[in-house]
Amino acid sequence: MVIIAFGFDPSPVSPEDPRLKRTPWGTYEVDENKMTSWPGVFAGGDVVRDADLLATALHDGREATAGIDRYLRARTR
C-alpha cells in the first residue's frame, strides 16, 4: 500500500493522463469512496476540492481510508 501526500504539488500524474477524469475546474473526479476514474487510485483534499482547509483534507483522508478498505476487502473475496 502506498499513500502519498503531495503538499503543494498537485499530482505526480500528467494532466493529460486519460486514466484520471477531471472536472471542468481541473480537479479530479472521485466517487463516494474517494476513488478516481483510475480503479484503485484514491484522492482527496485540494486535488479534489481545489484550495480548501486542512481540516477538510483530513476529513477526505478519513473517507478515502474507509473507501480503500472497502475496495480491498471486496477484491479479496
Please, could you describe this protein's structure?
With 77 residues, this protein is mainly alpha-helical. The chain is built from 2 helices and no strands. The chain starts with 45 loop residues before the first helix and ends with a helix. The mean pLDDT is 84.
Oligomer: single chain
Q: Which blocks of ≥5 consecutive residues have pLDDT under 50?
A: none
Order of helices and strands: HH
Rg calc: 12 Å
Shape: globular
Largest sheet: none
What number is the mean pLDDT?
84
Give the tally of β-strands. 0
Cα separation of the termini: 18 Å
Output the number of helix runs: 2
Count of individual domains: 1
Helix content: 25-40%
Estimated structural class: mainly alpha
Percentage of β-strand residues: under 5%
Write the layout of secondary structure elements.
Elements: H1 46-49, H2 54-75
Compact overview of the structure:
With 77 residues, the protein is mostly helical.
Summarize this structure as a short list of keywords or feature phrases:
globular, 2 helices, 77 residues, mainly alpha
